[in-house]
Amino acid sequence: MPLVIPNLLLPAELERIRSRLASTSFTDGGHTAGPQARRVKHNEQVPRGDAVEQELAPVVEGALKRSQTFLSAVLPRRLTTPLFSRYVPGMEYGSHVDNAVMFLAQPFRSDVSVTVFLSRPDEYDGGELVIEDGPFVQQVKLPAGSAVVYPSTSVHRVGTVTRGARLAAVLWAQSLVRDAARRQILHDLDRVTQVLRQRDPDSAELMLVTASHHNLVRMWAEC
Asked: Where are the domains of the chain?
């Protein structure tokens, strides 16, 4: 199931990213897509290795690493460098599944996909992120600075933009726990521990749930 993280970026971070992207050059986004996805990918992005990417990527990465929701739900082992994309009227990204393995400096298994919305919803029409989860289809269009996290196994697409510009940062995580169902169990247990800790930090129930959470991580994690 997709997980929304509201206000991932601080207002100053969001403004810094938007300001830099407003004055930078974008190129054809098809250069970073696989053979199948390239046929349906019609957007623009900041070139890989560009100075703007090198400046802004740590801002997004830092926001994710300080988000307890992201850390709990994803259990990240490695992150890719964010891609900064732009969709203007007529652009879209058809249905696709993200590459299972990305050949970076070391082979990288994509377990979790992350989209950080950088444009306000009222700045563009269309451009919804559409995520298919079995028979269920969810459309996502979030406030600027918020993020959605979802399994990279999901078929998804970006609807056609008909007005304005849709800016986003996209990246992938390799998790310590590759199975999405197991990650969900661990995230649920962690959420329960937070509630129990607020009620009584010394309770036997908190100790039992915390131990179960850690022991399942120990059982399932690939370090």
From this structure: 3-175, 180-220
Distances (CA, A) of 53 to 17, 50, 61, 135: 10, 5, 12, 37
Encode the chain (223 residues) as per-residue pLDDT tens digits: 899 999 999 999 999 999 999 999 999 987 776 666 678 999 999 999 999 999 999 999 999 999 999 999 999 999 999 999 999 999 999 999 999 999 988 899 999 999 999 999 999 999 999 999 878 899 999 999 999 999 999 999 999 999 999 999 999 999 999 999 999 999 999 999 999 999 999 999 999 999 999 999 999 999 8
Distances (CA, A) of 94 to 73, 118, 211: 27, 20, 44
pTM for the predicted model, two decimal places:
0.94
CATH class of 3-175: mainly beta
Alpha helices (H) in 28-67, listed in sequence order: 35-38, 51-66
Distance CA 197, CA 96 (A): 41
Residues 61, 45: Cα–Cα separation, whole Å: 18
CB 46 within 8 A of CB 17: no
